[in-house]
Here is the input.
Amino acid sequence: MSKTIIVSNRLPVKITKENEEYEFKLSEGGLATGLGSIYQEGNNIWIGWCGMEVAEEDQSLITEKLHQKNLSPVFLSEEEIHFYYEGFSNETLWPIFHYMSTYAEYEQQYWDYYQKVNEKFKEAVLALAEPGDIIWIHDYQLLLLPNLIRNELPDSSIGFFQHIPFPSFELFRLIPWRAELLNGMLGSDLIGFHTYDDVRHFTSSATRILPIQTTANIIHKEDRNITIDAFPMGIDNDKFNKLTKNPTVIQQKEEFNDIFGKNKIILSIDRLDYSKGILQRLMAFDKVLADNPKYINKISLHMIVVPSRDTIPQYRDLRDDIDKLVGNINARYRTPRWHPVHYFYRSFPIEHLSALYSRADICLVTPMRDGMNLVSKEFIASKTDETGVLILSEMAGASKELIDAIIVNPNNLGEMYRAIIEALEMSEEEQKTRMRSLREVVKKFDINHWVKIFMDQLHEVKALEQSRMAKHANKDLILQFKNQLSSSKKRVFFLDYDGTLVNFKANPIDASPDEKLYQLLTNLNKDERNQIVIISGRKHETLEEWFGHLPFDLIAEHGAWQKKAGGKWLETPNLSDKWKLAVRPMLESYSDRTPGSFIEEKRFSLAWHYRKVEKGLGELRANELISNMRYLTREKDLQLLPGNKVVEIKNSEINKGKAASNYIFGKDFDFILAMGDDHTDEDIFENLPASAITIKVGSSVSEAQYYLRDVDEVRNLLHHFSS
Ligand code: GDG
Here is the structure.
């Protein structure tokens, strides 16, 4: 039976060594609890670093002990931790992904180790993975891992979730190894982020940096489709609800009541990090006291900063700055019995946090950037009496869901100041109205819901991908097609031209039919029961020149023009081409910037070709063009067709699928076959009846049932039909 493998930088366990004995304590963090429902089941397993350097002779003992808990350790040396984790992960990726580009270090050695450790994780996965297993990889320390696994286990089902933000293209492009990182992530079948903005940023970076194509939130890379989606992570809501009734928490809360009396508490909890906006928060609080002496002796900021990464200079500087500012505020406003800021630079047991959440009047969560931010949700889950106010930064992923919080821009000191005053003065009635709706969101979208929807979607995406995989039209199938053909009386063959009947040429007009092709098609058409239809995006003049003299039916410009064998070309009525006035200048600007590209004008479409453009550059520009044109095409009711080395813009009423289904309408064909190589042919495959034989050329990912590898295989099949 297949199993699920979770992979993250850290295992959800704390290992300590006392008196030569190792002790293991499972983490109670939200992620560990949520994923507990997966990794603790059956033979599922969680792979990760065990959090400490372990002497070689102890490694097998630790592995054995952890395996009993369905955990599998990756052992990292001090050097590896320094360069891969503290270095590349936290000094390169972390600042860039949190929009602090000036803090980023681009050290070759960091990168070398990052690759090396990702390889090490790959080995750990391969040692346990079997075909059919589901692998769920977590976070920015392992961006290369999905593709490393994909190369070894091409059919595995791989999900990836990034817990921190994905920055906009302008930030991401700064990283020297950006393409490698994207390729690494795109080894997945499903990539998840907390918010839709992250999804957009990732997709835009991927399409601008790599030669790939996208439709909506699906990235097409070589023969695979990768789904990118938003999965806002929740917390263990039940746990935080229940904690408020825990005797230790109740006692702790009473102690807080003794200390603070009726004073209002503003709570702030973060790990030490420049992305958290701790200094800005202190400044806003300072202003509240400076401008409102009535709050002296009446309110306190209770601030917990959990020590973190303080070997890195920026973190040390930040800690010093916080120390100074807190000291300064306290020195200026304190009274003999009252401190404005209660500052703690350490961590506390969860019961202590729960008591604080439940006693606090306001929770001030104002990061400059945050993937999600779980503290805001934990505060809400702990507010069982439905009072309390959350002030939340719009830069935290959580702000997309917790819309009944007071949302602020953390760079806007005045706005933060006003938000604190508003929260301090808010009536209990309004607090309750807001808190009730916040609590509903946190309850519904909890950690279990998050795990379930991610896993469900991973299964769905994989099943869809497998169902989209066309079968190769091999010898046996060809025999089967021939049997179908021989028992039929009225047959139609829809044949795309470029990439299907002939190979691409640098200059489209050079791709004219060769003698062998004429011979092949003529032979096929000799049988009176057969009707050949050439269905192409080419201009009707070109099809006329090449096939007009033959008894084939012709469909040109994706269906804008049609001609019965021996008849006249007819154009689809009531179509306008006025839109070209707006579109042509845009295409011209792309041609001016992209050597080798050119514009082809057809009656109802404009095509920008890049088959002669340097490899990679053409795809890059095409993606840029597509994203720039999206708005205009929607407004003018046009269709944007990314084809094989071409982007075509045309009236949306026209497509090959409609043309093919109109063609067969009312005619009782008992054998229908269609072959095509690009995006525009997918419309034919989708529109034909299920009994039709549909064949994609050059790729197995398609709506078609079957695929052939290249033009030679297409010609071979046609040859079988005519012999
Ligand atoms: C990443 C992303 C995203 C804090 N102080 C203490 C303590 N905590 C706990 C809180 C909360 C967690 O730490 C911090 O939550 P974050 O949301 O900031 O999560 P991170 O793991 O730091 O970071 C973040 C998250 O991943 C999930 O995807 O939300 O944006 O940066 O649970 O309660 N816990 C204890 N004592 C403390 O003093 N016991």
